[in-house]
Amino acid sequence: MRDARGKVCLDLGCGTGDFLLQWVLQNPDARGIGVDMSAEALRQARETAERWSVTDRLEFHEAAVGPGPLAVPEAALDTVELVTSMYMLHEFGRNGREAIVDVVRALKAQLPGRHLLALEVEACDPEEFAAQTPPPAHFGRLDYRLIHQLSGQGLPRSQADWHGIFRDAGCSIVDPAS
To answer: What is the arithmetic mean of pLDDT over 65-80?
Structure first.
């Protein structure tokens, strides 16, 4: 993303727009488009954009991400050069791995040629995690593991599984070091 000066970023599941706000504040030529299904979160995002005087560079759309096209105006999507998804794609895992593949495939079809930066919590083994020396500063990864198991989303996925999901959806993996 460092080389994305002036680019337009589409943030899927943007919530209150915190990432996009930082994106445009740190990149004066950049613009952002946020998509979320929470009207309340988007209201807060718009208020924050107004407070920071960046409403001319940020726009927000209430829409659900899923296996079909995003309900966002084509004119807005045509400007997108970079797509981000932070801790959101795993939510489709409650319907099985193939459901995540379908969502990624739909995004690829609607936004061909764009890079997707997806962040997710990596799976962890509770016994290995507990045996760390020194002990972990917090237990967020274990909390995540428990919450997702209880909510029917299954266990967090490994990096290898995520890479497989993206490949199954017809995407290629870009090594950030290259």
So the answer is: 95
